[in-house]
């Protein structure tokens, strides 16, 4: 089937329309790894009631923006979506998708600039999670569009140290020295790309670990092969259930070395333990913190979905008091450790925390950095009801952001600035920072 790609949509696909026939108007067809304006020969893979999904068989007329991908796994691996486009064009694609989503869902026809903050497009990731299989050995990511394992021996968007760790595990796997009990590995590198914390997920059938076990031997060999490994921590499939016995708190125990990493930014140091979330772009963390917190000062600030304290630590320098709220246990422990005396760390779901606030509680500034699901209607309305004169929304999903923004705008806020912070080059993910002000 011949198709002309109209535009790219969130999720990485291109949108085209089937030709109308005797059955009615043509369906929308979503096709990956294409660019707007291209004419392609495509094969339909799935037919749904209102749309179809296809795959390109041949590029008939390529876009002038098309370039050769830099990774040999591109289009087979599910991790990247835009390697066939130059980096400048990737930013234009994301800005266009963000602007259209605001118009369609938030009913916000944003007239101003979307300020794009680029990243080096390669080697930017400080954290990479990979699946592992022992017989026959393989380490890799999910194959595009499936849950099957794609063998990957290098990852150009991951840091050099992470790539060295991937190579070391492959060598050990080929030598038969990788423990069969481990089903996943996550590599987390520090700011300088000089130290590595490794998290392993144990297979559900794993027996309790003993000194001299295959997993312990694997850890010793990996540390010998890669001296930058600061620690190895293991988790069972049930989140937070630890299977290794050493004298540290039960919720997370390391097999080897430290279970935390110190992450240095321009103005602060953060402890990040295994199991905690931290921003993945090692080049843009300082810029993100600056965009969220700069030029904000006052008495009381509220940081919702605070994580390990990335924003609340910065806010503590310009606000008399900061309240930081985090529900995830591992991240909360780090938040409490990283917080100076004028930051009150609260371990609670955001909605529950907000419901417990006394009436007429007033904040000078509120930051929300929710997960992909966004705030949701109830939480968005409570946040709006706080009446803070300034609110900054950090988003990783333009669809849920736009849904929440619509409620915030209806509740008396206006958008002052829009920033696109490209934390995920080569992928469809869109990270944005919205500065909102209360209408007088």
How would you describe this protein?
This protein has 9 helices and 23 strands. The protein has helices spanning 87-106, 160-174, 214-225, 285-293, 310-315, 329-338, 350-355, 377-385, 398-410; strands spanning 2-4, 7-8, 13-17, 28-32, 39-47, 51-61, 114-117, 127-133, 138-142, 149-151, 182-189, 196-202, 229-235, 254-257, 260-264, 269-273, 298-304, 319-326, 343-347, 365-368, 390-395, 413-421, 432-438. The protein has an 8-stranded mixed β-sheet, sandwiched between helices. A 7-stranded mixed β-sheet has the order 10-9-8-11-12-13-14, covered by helices on one side.
SSE order and pairing:
Blueprint: E1 2-4, E2 7-8, E3 13-17, E4 28-32, E5 39-47, E6 51-61, H1 87-106, E7 114-117, E8 127-133, E9 138-142, E10 149-151, H2 160-174, E11 182-189, E12 196-202, H3 214-225, E13 229-235, E14 254-257, E15 260-264, E16 269-273, H4 285-293, E17 298-304, H5 310-315, E18 319-326, H6 329-338, E19 343-347, H7 350-355, E20 365-368, H8 377-385, E21 390-395, H9 398-410, E22 413-421, E23 432-438
Parallel strand pairs: 4-6, 7-22, 12-13, 17-18, 17-20, 18-19, 20-21
Antiparallel strand pairs: 1-5, 2-3, 3-4, 5-6, 8-9, 8-11, 9-10, 11-12, 13-14, 15-16, 21-23, 22-23
Helix pairs in contact: 1-9, 8-9
In brief, what are we looking at here?
The protein is α/β, with parallel strands linked by helices and 440 residues long. It is built from 9 helices and 23 strands. The relative contact order is 0.11.
Considering the chains and any ligands shown, give keywords for the structure.
single chain, 440 residues, alpha/beta, eight-stranded mixed β-sheet, seven-stranded mixed β-sheet, 23 strands, 23% helix, 31% strand
